[in-house]
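ok, trying the design again with the full structure, not the truncated one.
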């Protein structure tokens, strides 16, 4: 019998985000410092078997229907293809990854053959100099090749996630959208959130959804897409009558916490009921101490009950979580 991951506000989590590593081969300025971070030691990181065991509990016992692997950068995890194959083989579960696409050119076909359904690729600019400025690495063309390989391998619809930064790429929204439309990628802008390792996020400096709409409206006609939004965090629009679309994820200025259906598992086996949660529930220690599947499922259910109604970013008492986005799993 499935025991749903329900919180005290009646929300049921069915979408599991699994961070496979906190490491990354880029250094996006809004995510981590140039020198990187103190990475999790190997022994703290879940093994492939441990990841698959927890995912299996989520899918078989707790009603998880969608599993998205992320990080850090999931493509740097050696066991990724195998983990995806074993997740897909559970049946009845959609699988996806969120990736910076470095190396995707080489692995897209293997990932598709393992049962991966979709990819979200992060790309904030289509100018190679701006790319190098934001990510501190000169790898723009690898991302472009990774995107094309994903589409060619049938990992679609390919979505592109973009963060706009004031004074860096906030004048590039229309050209990024045009580039994505020409290639059949679905672009989504994400408001910058207070999840950077450096704690440099600033509410007054961030580029808001309102500004993004204003910039796009100058060059395109956006009409709300008819399909119901449901738990999708993106507000979706048809561009110039469609079929191309653009999405805006206004996590800060138009929070969608009331419809959240997500739960997160970190690379070191901690359940987080929210990106912004300040508490975690340690499944790794319990698992390594010999807990049964039912005991782990029970801990997970309890962890979900503590989910807050909203992230409260605009509340004066808001405190950024101790771990950055790259360690939580974006
Ligand atoms: N490395 C992979 C990637 O970049 O797609 C997966 C992990 S990354 C943390 C996941 C997503 O979080 C990316 O789309 C990235 O742009 C986004 N992200 C990172 N830091 C962010 C922040 N402070 N605010 C909003 N989005 C952020
Ligand atoms: Fe790496 Fe993704 Fe963070 Fe960029 S956003 S540094 S690609 S984890």
């Amino acid at each position: 019998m499935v025991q749903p991951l329900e919180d005290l506000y009646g929300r049921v989590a069915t979408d599991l985000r699994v961070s496979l590593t906190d490491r990354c081969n880029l250094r996006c300025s809004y995510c981590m410092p140039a020198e990187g971070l103190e990475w999790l030691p190997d022994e703290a990181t879940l093994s492939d078997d441990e990841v698959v065991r927890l995912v299996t509990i989520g899918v078989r016992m707790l009603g998880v229907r969608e599993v998205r692997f992320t990080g850090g950068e999931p493509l740097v995890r050696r066991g990724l293809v195998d983990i995806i194959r074993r997740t897909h083989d559970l049946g009845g579960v959609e699988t996806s990854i969120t990736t910076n696409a470095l190396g995707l050119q080489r692995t897209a076909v293997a990932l598709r053959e393992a049962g991966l359904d979709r990819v979200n690729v992060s790309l904030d600019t289509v100018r190679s100099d701006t790319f190098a400025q934001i990510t501190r690495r000169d790898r723009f063309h690898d991302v472009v090749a990774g995107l094309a390989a994903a589409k060619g391998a049938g990992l679609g619809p390919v979505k592109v996630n973009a963060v706009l930064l004031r004074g860096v790429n906030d004048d590039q929204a229309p050209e990024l959208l045009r580039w994505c439309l020409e290639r059949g990628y679905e672009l989504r802008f994400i408001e910058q959130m207070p999840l950077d390792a450096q704690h440099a996020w600033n509410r007054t400096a961030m580029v808001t959804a309102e500004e993004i709409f204003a910039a796009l409206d100058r060059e395109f006609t956006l009409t709300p897409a008819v399909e119901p939004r449901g738990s999708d965090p993106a507000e979706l629009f048809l561009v110039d009558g469609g079929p191309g679309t653009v999405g805006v994820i206004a996590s800060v200025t138009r929070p969608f916490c009331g419809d959240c259906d997500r739960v997160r598992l970190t690379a070191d086996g901690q359940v987080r009921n929210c990106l912004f949660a300040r508490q975690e529930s340690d499944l790794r220690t319990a698992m390594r101490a010999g807990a049964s599947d039912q005991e782990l499922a029970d801990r997970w259910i309890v962890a979900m009950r503590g989910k807050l109604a909203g992230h409260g970013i605009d509340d004066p008492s808001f405190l950024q979580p101790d771990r950055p986005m790259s360690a939580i799993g974006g």
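Keeping the full-length input from now on. The chain has ten helices and 14 strands.
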